[in-house]
User: What shape does this take?
Amino acid sequence: MLVLGTLRWQLALDARIRDLLARPEAKLSAEAATALRMGAYQLLYLDRVPAHAVIHDAVELVKQGSERGAAGMVNAVLRKVQRTALSVQRSGAGRPGGGASRGINLAQSAHPAWMVERWVRRYGTGAAGAICRWDQEPANTALRVDSKAEFDDLETEPGYFLAAARHVVRGDIAKSAAVREGRARIQDEASQLVAEVLAVQAAGEGDPTLRVLDLCAAPGGKTAILAERLPEAEIMAVDVSRTRLDTMRKRMPEPLAGRIRFEAADATKMELQPEWDRILCDVPCSGTGTMARNPEIRLRVTEADLGRQHARQVAILRAGLRGLKVGGRLVYSSCSLEREENEAVVAEVLGAVQGFAVVAVAAILDQLAERGVVTAEGRERLRSATEGDFLRTLPGVHPCDGFFAAVIERRRNHATGTGYIRELSSP
Assistant: This one.
């Protein structure tokens, strides 16, 4: 709680601390800054530990390090934080931070201004505010469960979209028998949905020779779903990191791992042939859709990083399309909220090749609902997650991580034998 909470609120905490320093322009040591942030976070956002104990612990932490001389400054600043926190409570203003109902206070949103401004332009003020608020709370825990999973030791509720998902309300997941025995595993519901979109098959399609390729497989949650849904298929999981791939293999439920071929390779350097029926390209990305889970992303990612990610993602998607059979489908997905990493990648790649078309995801979601994979309530909730032909979940707007997915099919014009491409407009 201390680590993740301090990271979530670090930008707002730094702004408040800076205002309370005798010399706001002074550069703080890492030790003093960390002690101040952790102490200020507890004083402003938590209430289990008394203020005097919070301040005492922060001062003692500094005394134990190489910045002993900063102990007095830490004590003075945190006492000022305590007084300002009390004045806010007495005024009835409530807990500081978060997005305002009629706009977003950049100073209090605890997100970089460039991120928030992009989201406001792209999704509107309401959705951008919902994203910011969602990121500032501990992420909910979703499970992927099999039909035999029982949760006598956990309180759960149904998934928001999927019949095979459950959300943990309370209980210790690490002690759950269902989790320990592999009948349930932690996986965000939007992440599960991306794999379900690729796994759905047309009626009557039960070809035991179906070949499935996951080009960026680790940590393996989506690969496991593909193996569950396509029990007769030949599946290969590829990842550039052998370490991550080995960890994925060890964590994969044994019955599933035994049916998957694992290969450590750089997807962009593989000489793929058009022999795969299904391909998943869940590409490495900025991760801006997962900041409730990974709050440090906002402190690490810069706007300039998006262009570098884009180039890498384009290379992976191009490589994937080379391996797709005529009639085969590829899902390009990311957990980014940024256009450069999503529809701009699809537009650039499909604008340079022939024979591929984007498949409307709404029709696929209807298929999933007809088969009971997506619940009836979930299908209605997913209406707001369909943007044109694409799938897009937004944190806070939907109770899950932010994911983008595009379904691409390799087609052939039967009249002429030449390929064709569906026109993509730039939103």
